[in-house]
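Appendix B. One record, verbatim.
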Amino acid sequence: MTFRVLDPTAEKAPPAGKAAPRLASLEGKTIGFISNGKEGTKGFFRHLDRMLREEHGVAKVVSRTKSNYSAPADAGIVAEIKSWDAVVSGIGD
């Protein structure tokens, strides 16, 4: 009897990502919230929205909810990200 062992690891490491540059300030910026749609994100995002506007001068908060909590963000949401200055992605149960 012969045993054949397969190695599922990639032959080379994927390219490393690069962190986005830090914003100097949040004042006047547009911040996007992406929720997984679970109940726990609602209160958190409401509170964070208020804090960002009142304490950091954020001009606009855009809230979006994924159509499936366990999948990546929908294509329409991903397309919108380009128009935001920063993104907060939240999960909550």
